[in-house]
Amino acid sequence: QVTLRESGPALVKPTQTLTLTCTFSGFSLSTSGMCVSWIRQPPGKALEWLARIDWDDDKYYSTSLKTRLTISKDTSKSQVVLTMTNVDPVDTATYYCARVTPVIKAFDSWGQGTLVTVSS
Amino acid sequence: QSALTQPASVSGSPGQSITISCTGTSSDVGGYNYVSWYQQHPGKAPKLMIYEVSNRPSGVSTRFSGSKSGNTASLTISGLQAEDEADYSCTSYTTNITLPYVFGTGTKVTVL
C-alpha cells in the first residue's frame, strides 16, 4: 500500500524559511522512472505545481518560484524535503506531496496535505 | 506558463451526463497525451480519476471518461450521482522543461 505524509510547521513568519518533509512508504524513489512532486493549494484556489525530484536526482522547479525552492531526497529514509525561503502571506496554502510512476505518468498517490499559514 | 482554463462551475441532475473542458495550448494539452484529471472533495486530497487523456486507474468508476481534441481535453461524468459533487482539476505536461506541469483553474461540480 502506497502512502505519503507531509509534515512541517503550521505557522511561519514572513521572511522565514519553510521546511516541509514528505515521508512515504510502499515504493522506492530509487526505482527507475519514479518521481515525487510538491503541489500547493491556497485556500479556495487552484492547485499549483511547485517542484519535482526524480529517481536519478534530477530536479525541476516552478519557474515563478525557482529562486526560493530547493527539493532534495533521502532515499534511505523514504523522504523528500522541500524548502522555501523568504515566505510571504501569499504562500499560505495546503502543501501536498504526490507520486508519479513510470507506468502512470500522473499524480497517482497524494499525501493528506499540510496547511501552512504565513503570518506575523 | 498560464494555467489551463476550466469552467468555474458545471451542474447537472442525478442520472445526467456532464462534461468539463480543459483548454490549453499546443505547448501543453495539444502537445502531449499526458492530460490527467483529479477529483477533490472539501478538505480532502485530490484523487486521480483519469490519466494519459482517457485511462482510468484501477478502482475508478467507468462513469468517468476522458478525451482530447486539439488543445482542449474533456472529462465526462455519466449517470451523475450525489457523490460526484466535488471540485475537478486537470493537469498536463508542458514543453517547458523548467515547468513540466501546469494545472487547470478548477471546476466545481454541483449535483442538483
Q: Can you give a write-up of this model?
A:
The complex is a heterodimer of chains A (120) and B (112). Chain A is mainly β and 120 residues long. Chain A has no helices and 11 strands. In chain A, 35% of the residues are buried. Chain B is globular and about 40 Å long. Chain B is mainly β. In chain B, the strands form 2 sheets. In chain B, strands 1, 3, 4, 7, 8 and 9 form a 6-stranded mixed sheet that branches. A 3-stranded antiparallel sheet of chain B has the order 2-6-5, with no helix packed on it. The termini of chain B are far apart. Classes of the chains: A mainly beta (120), B mainly beta (112). Chain A binds chain B through residues 37, 39, 45-49, 52, 60-63, 66, 96, 98, 104-113, and chain B through 1, 3, 34, 36, 38, 44-48, 51-52, 55, 57, 89, 91, 93, 96-106.
- What's the total helix number of chain B? 0
SS element count, helices of chain A = 0
The H/E string of chain B reads EEEEEEEEE
Share of helix of chain A, binned: under 10%
pLDDT < 50 runs, ≥5 residues of chain A = none
| Oligomeric state | heterodimer
Overall body shape of chain A: globular
Radius of gyration of chain A: 14 Å
SS strand fraction of chain A: over 45%
How many DSSP E strands of chain B? 9
The main β sheet of chain B shows up as: 6 strands, mixed
How far the N terminus sits from the C terminus of chain A, by CA atoms, comes to 40 Å
- Overall pLDDT level of chain A: 96
Mean pLDDT of chain B: 95
Low-confidence stretches of chain B at least 5 residues in length (pLDDT < 50)? none
